[in-house]
């Protein structure tokens, strides 16, 4: 039976396209499980686990799993974050659509993390980036994608044994996003991301003047005529 995959939005489509082939995808905070289902329909030899901490989303995931005929390859798990004993080194863990503080807490509580993760915080990305360094996880790529009227950051993360430190620019803007902006390698998504961050930093600067150089670097990357209140 050839089943047509669900139609994902741009953010989840991007995440799905970044997942490694023929692997096991563990999607934490999966909700409807459409991300792992799409992955399985594109990867006939792969398997997946959809985790959610609420029963209602998992009931929808159960319906979707049957509708798309992937019952044998998709496990549904009711759990808070990553349960002990589940994750193996070659799994790819996805955590998307949760705040940066919550993703950080899930990673810190996990007893084991795989070699590869894809993370997309809906807020407070700077807090998550700082935590990654202390967890021995390194950001190897960052993507910014437009969906509706928002720009979302998606981080590809790998385990590292090399200690590293992010400076304030890298922590707030993102190490890869910052390089792209400095290279004037701009897309509408990157521009929107930078403008929103400028607004956020402008508000935070009242309490923390040390953020001013970060905001100025972002403004420079957008061109001198950019106004912080746009
Ligand atoms: C906004 S949805 C995101 C769905 C999907 N990952 C996406 O990016 O569109 C967040 C989901 O994560 C679940 N969730 C929140 N905190 C969680 C946790 N600590 N462990 C597992 N699931 C969680 C919620 O129940 C909800 O279904």
Architecture overview:
With 230 residues, this protein is α/β, with parallel strands linked by helices. The chain folds into 2 domains: 10-164, Vaccinia Virus protein VP39 (Rossmann fold), CATH 3.40.50; 167-230. The chain has helices at residues 10-18, 34-42, 55-67, 100-109, 125-134, 168-173, 175-182, 188-205, 212-222; strands spanning 24-28, 47-52, 74-78, 92-96, 116-120, 137-147, 150-159. A 7-stranded mixed β-sheet has the order 3-2-1-4-5-7-6, with helices on both faces. A hairpin with a 2-residue loop joins strand 6 (137-147) and strand 7. The mean pLDDT is 94. S-adenosylmethionine is lined by residues 12, 28-31, 51-54, 57, 80-81, 96-98, 102, 106.
Distance between the termini: 51 Å
Shape: globular
Listing every helix as H and every strand as E from the N terminus to the C terminus, the arrangement reads HEHEHEEHEHEEHHHH
Give the proportion of residues in helices.
Answer: 40-55%
**CATH level 3 topology of the largest domain:** Rossmann fold
Question: What is the quaternary state of this protein?
Answer: single chain
Q: Strands across the major sheet, in which order?
A: 3-2-1-4-5-7-6
- What's the domain count? 2
**Rounded mean pLDDT score:** 94
The largest β sheet comes out as: 7 strands, mixed
Bound molecules: S-adenosylmethionine
* Beta strand count: 7
The CATH architecture classification of the largest domain is 3-Layer(aba) Sandwich
- Enumerate the spans where pLDDT stays under 50 for 5 or more consecutive residues: none
């Amino acid at each position: 039976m050839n089943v047509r995959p669900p139609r994902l939005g741009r953010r989840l489509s991007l995440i799905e396209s970044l997942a490694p082939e023929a692997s096991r995808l563990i999607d934490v905070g999966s909700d409807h499980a459409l991300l792992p289902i799409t992955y399985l329909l594109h990867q006939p030899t792969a398997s997946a686990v959809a985790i959610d901490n609420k029963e209602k989303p998992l009931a929808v995931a159960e319906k979707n799993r049957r509708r798309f005929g992937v019952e044998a390859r998709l496990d549904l798990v009711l759990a808070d974050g990553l349960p002990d004993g589940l994750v193996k080194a070659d799994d790819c863990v996805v955590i998307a659509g949760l705040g940066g503080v919550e993703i950080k807490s899930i990673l810190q509580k996990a007893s084991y993390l795989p070699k590869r993760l894809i993370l997309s915080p809906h807020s407070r990305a700077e807090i998550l980036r700082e935590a990654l360094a202390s967890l021995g996880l390194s950001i190897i790529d960052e993507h910014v994608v437009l969906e509706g009227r928002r720009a979302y950051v998606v981080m590809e993360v790998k385990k590292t044994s090399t200690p590293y430190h992010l400076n304030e620019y890298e922590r707030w803007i993102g190490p890869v996003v910052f390089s792209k902006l400095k290279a004037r390698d701009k897309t509408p998504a990157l521009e929107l991301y930078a403008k929103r961050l400028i607004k956020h930093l402008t508000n935070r600067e009242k309490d923390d003047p040390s953020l001013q150089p970060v905001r100025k670097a972002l403004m420079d990357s957008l061109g001198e005529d950019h106004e912080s209140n746009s």
